[in-house]
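Q: How would the structure tokens look for this protein?
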Amino acid sequence: MTDLEHALTLNLADLLDRSLERFEQRPFLLGGPAGRTFGEIGSEVDRLAGSLAELGVGAGSRVAVLLPSRPEMLTLWLALARLGAAMVPMHPDSTLPEVRVLLARAGACGLVTDQAHGSALEEAAALPWRAVIDGEPPPQALSWSQLVGGVPRSLARPAPGQLVSLLFTSGTTGAPKGVRMTHSSFVLPALAFGRFMAVTPEDRFFGCLPLFHLAGQAFAASALAAGASIAVVERFRGSDFWRQVAETRATLVRYIGEMLAVLCKHSPVPGEREHTLRAVYGGGARPDVAEEFSRRFAVPVVEGYGLTETSTVLCNSLALGRRGSIGRALEHARVRIADDLGRSLPAGEVGEIQVERNAAMMDGYEGDPALTASVFVGDWFRTGDSGYGDEEGWFYFLGRDKDVVRRRGENVAASEVEGVLARHPAVALAAVVGVADDLGGEEIKAYLVLRPGWQVSATQLRSWCADSLAPFKVPRFLELCEELPMTPTHKVRKKELKVRGPLLGAWFDCREEAGISLVTS
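A: Here is the predicted structure in token form.
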């Protein structure tokens, strides 16, 4: 049996069991006075799985989670993986209307949250059970100590193709899409990551990307697969980063491009090259920023590529990396460049990056087979990203074609924001685009045409958006226009709006960054 054939037989719980057998006394979860070993985490996961089973959680169940990144999310995810159930993480900044929609669409049997989300707990009162991980739980809710106080039991082994994460992500359709990710979606990339990044049990992962996203979960799975340890922090903060790296003696970090830009903007300090990091891995960094970060801090920057729907499919190699490339295809994946008619293009020609259907790819969009079918051409998933490949199989990213704004690591569907703005009685027409920020990412800008005779302030419009949208979806820039450029079929020509930039003629610039997952100071 080849390595790939063996990997195709494994589930997420198998990765935990393999590390338990070999590294029971070694640290897995870093933090606190002494951290926690694989053995301690394994015991907690088994007890938690026992409690959840008593609550009726089993194969095919979904448990909603509304939390910032914290270690309890990781043990809960692994316990659900043991049961053949799935975690449905929601962004902790979700508004009540968003929570209401996601709970209904997910078909959740329970909710795990914290005291900070008490209103969401009330919203979920009709669910069979609810739990709070901190403080005294309200009536009819469980505490975290009750959940982890269960009795382990014998459980059926989940199939590798069974659902383990239902991840809601914005897309061009506006409404969040429920991306169905299986055990193989995490196992196959995790094992490949270990090879490409030469991971050993001595490595110490620094998890500063959210566990309610694919990237944070996948990074944790990679640590688990290698028998390495991981520190989980609530969010990346530029001012805390190097101190946290020193405290955890971290060797590997997964990044989004803006993170490297933030760190490069900090003033140089003595000894900033004296740290334990041996590499950072991620995507979205501008080439000049990646080069500056690597030179300044003496840390190799390794780029990869993947969407929530595909998981990681391309990865540069730490040992044999190609500068400027997003990598070569992992063993389980095939990637091509195609034209608008779905025909493969030769090396050097620019087209759409497409990924062939494989075991690590999503098992479709939740409850929407038509949408699932629409993103494939034959067996090839259409990423909406443009790029090219070379003769040796290295791929290069050029840009995003989808109507999505990539803000601080979050995908925001332009149509979702436009829909909220269009419901305001003063707004006749709204168009939302991404405009470049100074970190190599995008900010959200809305162009608005008001109805005749109506007036509205920017503050009122921002409050209107905040009532229905998580903070990271609320536009920063608002510009009032008499008309918008239109096509003959009456569609807004957004390319013309994007080149105007964020400040030219800006009506309002809200610099408030609350709720954004990347903190720059």
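The first strand starts at residue 27 and ends at 30.

The two ends are 50 Å apart (CA to CA).

Upvote if useful.
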